[in-house]
Specification:
Layout (H helix, E strand, L loop, with lengths): L1 E6 L3 H15 L3 E5 L10 H6 L2 E6 L7 E6 L4 E5 L12 E6 L2 E7 L9 H22 L4 E6 L12 H4 L7 H12 L3 E2 H5 L8 E2 L5 H4 L2 E2 L2 E5 L1 H4 L2 E6 L15 E5 L1
Length: about 260
């Protein structure tokens, strides 16, 4: 089973690229982030025509997550995270697909930092950690897939000085990510590239793609039961180089 996380940076603008990926690669599950679309604007018909069932949690102009499953309908488990009832941002969607718990998440960026946005990011990470502990207690194969907006290690970026003041690389962000892993989750891509140097994001500015000046912020974390099934993990980098592509590349894990 190939499970993909893909921040599309606008489902309407990027729909041709998404459909292209579904048709060419035919992954089993795709977790989308940054839909930038209200629920009623989600292109369910086009995705169904490509052979995928879908659940989505949209928000007009901002955020938004979805789970697509090839040849079947994802079963909804939870929309949003507990802990802040007033939080209306669409950033978490948890489903059951073929007996595996799969969550698509879009963690807050947190810039500028310090400030309210960074504080929200850290609170959101604690709420995610609480949900992750609950999932581990179920002792089932589970995958937390998404754009974490965290660069976990220095070798996960093309330039430490360039990112040093960014919320993605602050000690607090990294510490929260490490606490999540310490619960028992496996960073699948890191397990296959322990020396780093693998990017999932290239900014549109300053020729970042052409210079390969990227960093790794898209992660698929595996519960112990899912990690036992791990075959491989990687990045479908070539899709970032296509016309009018997202600034993220599809990032994936393959499980038995």
């Amino acid at each position: 089973m190939k499970i993909v996380t893909y921040n599309v940076n606008g489902i309407k603008a990027r729909l041709p690229r998404v459909l292209e990926y579904l048709t060419e690669d035919q992954p089993d599950v795709v977790c989308l982030q940054e839909l930038k679309s209200a629920d009623e604007g989600f292109p369910a018909a086009e995705i169904a025509a490509a052979g995928y069932g879908a659940l989505w949690h949209g928000q007009k102009a901002w955020n938004g997550v979805a789970v697509l499953a090839r040849g079947q309908e994802p079963i909804l488990r939870q929309r949003g995270l507990d802990g802040e009832p007033e939080d209306e941002q669409s950033r978490y969607l948890e489903c059951d697909v073929g007996g595996i718990v799969i969550a698509s998440l879009y963690l807050p960026n947190g810039n500028p930092q310090p400030g309210a946005k960074f504080d929200y990011k850290l609170r959101w990470m604690e709420r995610l950690a609480a949900r992750a502990r609950t999932l581990l207690a179920e002792e089932r194969p589970a995958v937390l897939a998404g754009d974490y907006n965290v660069i976990p290690n220095d070798d996960d970026t093309y330039s430490v000085p360039a990112m040093a003041s960014d919320a993605l690389m602050q000690p607090e962000s990294r510490a929260a990510y490490r606490r999540l892993l310490a619960q028992g989750w496996t960073d699948s891509l890191r397990s296959r590239a322990p020396k780093g140097g693998v990017w999932t994001f290239w900014d549109y500015q300053a020729g970042s793609w052409q210079r390969d000046a990227g960093f790794r912020i898209d992660h698929l974390l595996l519960s112990p039961q899912a990690a036992d099934r791990l075959v491989d993990a990687g990045v479908d980098k070539s899709y970032r180089g296509r016309d009018k592509a997202s600034d993220h590349a599809p990032t994936w894990v393959r499980l038995r």
